[in-house]
TrEMBL record:
It comes from the Bacteria. Keywords: NADP. Belongs to the NmrA-type oxidoreductase family. The keyword NADP applies. The keyword NADP applies. Residues 2-258 form the NmrA-like domain. Gene3D superfamilies: NAD(P)-binding Rossmann-like Domain, UDP-galactose 4-epimerase, domain 1. This is NmrA/HSCARG family protein.
C-alpha cells in the first residue's frame, strides 16, 4: 500500500492515478474527503484518509501499515516556502517513524544547485532532511510543468498571437507533463532496488522560445510571434519569477532527455500537450 500526499493536486493526482492503473493499493491523504478531487480519487479506487501535514498524529495514522510514500508539498500555501519546508519535513519524519520501505519525494530540477529560487531552495532543504533521516528514498526532480502554458501560453495582441516569455531566444527550457511524473514515480515503486538512493531530474521535452511558438502556431493554424522579455521585467510582478527565469537563461535544467526518452519513448511533448489541452484565443 502506497500513501500519496497531494492526491487532489496536479502532481500527486497524476501519481495516484498511475499507481492505481498499475494495480497498486493507494491511500490518498486529503484535507477534505468530500471535495470533487477527493471523490474522483475514491471513484478511481483510492482509499481516502483525512490528514493534515501540520498534525503529527494524523500523519502517523495515515502512514500506519504503509509500504511506500509519495510526498509532495506546495509553496503556494498560507506560509509560503516556510510552510512547505515544515510540512515536507513532517511527512519525512512520520515515514521514518512508520518504518516505510520506500519514500519517493517530488522535488524540482535544480533543488541541489543553489539556484537562489526560493521554491527550489525549499525543496533542497527537504531533500537534505530526508537524507539525514536515512530514509530509503528516491528523489524525483521535475522540470517546468507543461500545464503552466495554460496560463502563460500565447495571447492575442492587436489581432496576432504572441508568446511572451522571459527567455533569451537561444535558451532551451526543459519541461514535463504531470502525467509523466506519475509514470516515473510508479516506476520507482515498481523497481525499488534500482531507484532507492537515486536523485533523478526528469523532463519530456526541451525547446527554445521560438520553437515553442512554432508548436503553438501549428496548433492554431496561424503564426505565433515569440517575444523575448527581459527576466528583470518580471520583477514588478514577482521577484522570485525574475530570479527563476534568470536562472533558466544562465543555467537551466539538466535532465538527460535522450536517456529518459530511450527508456520512455512516449513521454509527452509540448506538441502533444498543446494538441490535447490548448485552444487559440478567439480573434
Amino acid at each position: 500500500m502506497i500513501v500519496v500526499f497531494g492526491g487532489t493536486g496536479r502532481q500527486g493526482g497524476a501519481v495516484a492515478r498511475e499507481l492505481l492503473r498499475r494495480g497498486r493499493t493507494v491511500r490518498a491523504v486529503v484535507r477534505d474527503p468530500q471535495s470533487a478531487g477527493a471523490r474522483a480519487l475514491a471513484a478511481a479506487g483510492a482509499e481516502l484518509v483525512k490528514g493534515d501535514m501540520e498534525d503529527a498524529a494524523s500523519l502517523d495514522a495515515a502512514l500506519a501499515g504503509a509500504h511506500g510514500v509519495y510526498s509532495v508539498q506546495t509553496f503556494e500555501g498560507p506560509d509560503g516556502s516556510a510552510g512547505e519546508i515544515r510540512q515536507g519535513k513532517a511527512v519525512a519524519d512520520a515515514a521514518h517513524r512508520a518504518g516505510v520501505t520506500h519514500f519517493v519525494y517530488g522535488s524540482v530540477g535544480g533543488a541541489e544547485r543553489s539556484s537562489g529560487v526560493e521554491h527550489f531552495e525549499s525543496k533542497g532543504e527537504i531533500e537534505r532532511h530526508i537524507a539525514a533521516l536515512g530514509l530509503p528514498a528516491t528523489v524525483l526532480r521535475p522540470t517546468m510543468f507543461l500545464s503552466n502554458f495554460a496560463g502563460i501560453g500565447p495571447a492575442r495582441v492587436d489581432g496576432e498571437l504572441v508568446l511572451t516569455l522571459a527567455l533569451e531566444p537561444g535558451t532551451v527550457l526543459q519541461m514535463i507533463a504531470t502525467d509523466d511524473i506519475g509514470v516515473f514515480a510508479a516506476d520507482a515503486f515498481d523497481n525499488a532496488a534500482e531507484f532507492t538512493g537515486k536523485q533523478l531530474e526528469i523532463a519530456g521535452d526541451a525547446l527554445t522560445g521560438p520553437q515553442m511558438a512554432e508548436v503553438f502556431a501549428r496548433a492554431a493554424g496561424e503564426p505565433v510571434r515569440f517575444v523575448s522579455q527581459p527576466a528583470e521585467a518580471l520583477r514588478a510582478f514577482s521577484e522570485e519569477a525574475a530570479i527563476m527565469f534568470g536562472w533558466f537563461n544562465d543555467h537551466g535544467y539538466i535532465a538527460d532527455l535522450p536517456a529518459l526518452r530511450a527508456s520512455h519513448p512516449d513521454l509527452i511533448t509540448l506538441e502533444r500537450w498543446v494538441a490535447e489541452n490548448w485552444t487559440a484565443p478567439a480573434k
